[in-house]
Design brief:
single chain; alpha+beta; five-stranded antiparallel sheet; rod-shaped
Length: 132
């Protein structure tokens, strides 16, 4: 039988232990970076969808204001499809020449809303515009 040198076993064990520890640290760093990258991409997509939803409801508001300008007695609900996304506006007669408009638009699960109040028709005066 061959005589095993205990000193070589200790050095080998120490080297193996260091390699395992360094590998674990490298793996945890790699997982951390990939997880943060995934969250960053998701946040970027949510920001993009939020900006698209804001543009959608603003465009829909312009359509609603144009409809009111063309027909001063208009009151009702309609949908507008832009770039494959749909927004809805509702115009209500709140008395006299005052109208309330509520616009909703959704892009990728992000919902935007605008509340508008107009006070006169000629010229069309917007007295309140609130984005939510």
């Amino acid at each position: 039988m061959k005589n095993i040198n205990k000193e070589n076993l200790k050095k080998g064990f120490s080297t193996l232990f260091i390699v395992i520890i360094l590998g674990g640290i490298a793996l945890s760093v790699a997982l951390s970076l990939s997880t943060s990258s995934v969250w960053s991409i998701k946040a970027s997509n949510d920001t993009k969808d939020s900006n698209k939803a804001k543009s959608l409801v603003n465009a829909c508001a312009e359509v609603a204001l144009e409809v009111m300008r063309e027909n001063n007695s208009y009151a009702g609900t309609d949908n507008v499809v832009l770039d494959g996304n749909t927004c809805t506006y509702t115009v209500t007669n709140t008395g006299g020449t005052t109208r309330g408009i509520v616009i909703f638009g959704t892009v990728g699960g992000i919902v935007r809303k605008i509340d508008i109040t107009t006070s006169t028709f000629n010229p069309l005066v917007i007295s309140y515009w609130q984005e939510n």
